[in-house]
Amino acid sequence: TGSTRPQRLLRAVQKKATQGDPQSVIATIDHFCRHSEWAMNVGDEKGSILDSVVTELNPSSALELGTYCGYSTVRIARLLPPGSKLITLEFNPAYAAVARQVIAWAGLNDKVQLVEGPSGDLIPQMKELFGVQTFDFVFLDHWKDRYLPDTKLLEECGLLRKGTVLLADNVICPGTPEYLEYIRNSSRYESRYFKSHLEYTKVEDGLEKSVFLG
Ligand SMILES: CCCNc1ncnc2c1ncn2[C@@H]1O[C@H](/C=C/CNC(=O)c2cc(-c3ccc(F)cc3)cc(O)c2O)[C@H](C)[C@H]1O
Ligand SMILES: [Mg+2]
Predict the structure, then answer these.
(1) Does 73 contact ligand 1 (Cβ within 6 A)?
(2) CA separation for the pair 201, 214 (Å, rounded)
(3) From CA 85, how far away is CA 87, in angstroms rounded?
(4) What ligand has the least distance to the C-alpha of 91?
(5) 127/109 Cα distance (integer angstroms)
(6) Confidence grade of residue 103 (pLDDT, cut at 50, 70, 90)
(7) Is 199 annotated as catalytic?
(8) pLDDT value at position 12?
(9) Nearest Cα to 174, choosing from 10, 40, 53?
(10) Prediction pTM value
(11) Whose CA is nearest to atom 33 of ligand 1?
(12) 112-116: strand order across its sheet
């Protein structure tokens, strides 16, 4: 029984990245994915767009759907002001275990709460379990056919407020057609497409940034 790709990615982080240095964790994962084994992290090019959205917003409460190895978790959490919290949801225990160690290596445990379980069950429990009122920022990067149902669930659970920003990865590749159709035609959102490329490739992809209007 060999190792999995996420485990090999984690081993690279523990071998090459500096403990407590999120930037070196990010650089190590990008190098690993570019030169050793491709993995579906948001990557450096789309990651820079993610950084600029988070920096501009300066969110106090943030939610990530789909932790995977924790790459975007580290990208977001490293930019959060003191006292802010990023809740990240991951339903695969093996990925959650790897992500916890990546987040710990980056020294970001105090800013991140990784919750294991499916978003559909956890979103309705956000208020009672984690004392969340509303989210300032949501990063969607889990199964692409779950972006729309989970966005509607966030609305129904009163977890979005006037000005909440949703940022969705992969709206071109693999694509999230139902989500784009809904969010671009809804009078309750103001959306903008950020053209970029699929992580570590020349294939087109992009991020959709949508502001909830209340
Ligand atoms: C029902 C449960 C829903 N609720 C859930 N609740 C909690 N956690 C959930 C839920 N649904 C999924 N997850 C977790 O999130 C992660 C899933 C991430 C999915 N990401 C992609 O599929 C993708 C593909 C490509 C790609 C592009 C080109 C290619 F050629 C190949 C691949 C690129 C990209 O940037 C991509 O993000 C993780 C693996 C999975 O366990
Ligand atoms: Mg993605």
Answers:
(1) no
(2) 37
(3) 6
(4) 1
(5) 21
(6) very high
(7) yes
(8) 98
(9) 40
(10) 0.99
(11) 40
(12) 112-116, 85-90, 61-65, 135-140, 160-168, 204-212, 189-197
